[in-house]
## 1
Amino acid sequence: MGTAVVARVAGWALALVAGAVFGTAGTITHPFTVGGWLPAGLIVAAVACLALLLAIRLLVDDRGAVISAGLGMLAALALFSGRGPGGSVVVPQAAAGEFPVGMVWMFLLAGIVLIVVAWPDARRLRALRAPSE
């Protein structure tokens, strides 16, 4: 195995861990509200996860690292959304008439990951448009 392959796999592993950390933090803090109505936890969690994915996407020329970080986020969400061994649930189902903040977090995080991963690479687009010299 070449050094480049080892570096790429190590980068994917680090991105997976970073994504899992951000996904765990967002999943735990997303139901926090300010004043009983402003979903501050949801907003901060979404911005933080978006910022991590954008930073990886802009700093690394490898879409695999972004996919890896996104998978870490989604895996943390899936892990903590289920019932724990003691019967506790981090992302409870909303009661009738309540705002379903857990469902919003699930779809918002998945949407953020999909959009950042699917966004076209601007450098490649500019290279295609540039006249060949």
## 2
Amino acid sequence: MIQNDRHAPEAVPQHPDVTEAIVRERRLHDPSVRRSGPRVEALLDPDFVEVGASGRRWTYAEMVAALPTLHGSGEHSTPITAALFEGAVLAPGIVHLTYETRIEDRRARRSSIWRRDAAGELRLYHHQATPVPEGTARP
């Protein structure tokens, strides 16, 4: 069902796949994961595609190679703050998440689709980020 940071996780009923997708999404925000090719590869689907907040399209190979150099990856870089997670199971093994991030003074609304692979692992298949214009109130 829905997971939202405005509530304690135990206060909002949610499907276990949504919980798992949120945990995995948060791992991708962890600098130690972002700097580790093998850990990133384990979280991304081989067919992964992202359309970033810049409008750039990223493939699996491009993201694995670039992620260690992107914001939120350095030991001393500004951390990625994520909140307002909501999720839904679209079909067995397919989870859609939405949430908002803040990196320094930039906000983005994000949408992710996670799918289970043949081994049963939930992996990020598609990600989209849309910048939030300065001065825009939260939803």
## 3
Amino acid sequence: MTNWLGGMRATADRMYDTDLIGRVVFLANRATNQSISSGADNVANALQWDEVNYDLLGVFNPAQPTRWTCPRAGWWTFQGAVGFNAAAGGTTRECCWYVNGGLISMGRARPISGTIAGNPLTVDARSVPRLMAVGDYVQLVPAQDSGSALLTATGSFRSYISITYSGPA
């Protein structure tokens, strides 16, 4: 599906939008440990991206390392995961999508619940399509209830975020 209708003229913007559909435009990860406090999800724990692998649109701002800011209105798809270091305490490891500082509908993933073994683990965020306006921002927020602060994992367990342009509004 494209953003073309019968009789439309080919413009640079329309061609650019069509070329971006389905493309990953941002990929980053957390290469070093980050401390996540114990308790419910909290925007203060949003992951800080310290290694940007790909920023096609050049919009990531290192001064706001928890945010990816939308450069153009349209549909975007968020993907990501949070890697937690080993800790046997607690029963929950999860991650949530926040937009403009608040939890979004369909934004919570809690696939790890019950007895937690003392092994590193990765919690996948839900893959969520979202209509975004210019200037909206997205954050991946982890949560855990081990009873004390827990570090995110590094290496092959490290956390990541991926943003794909899905099409115009």
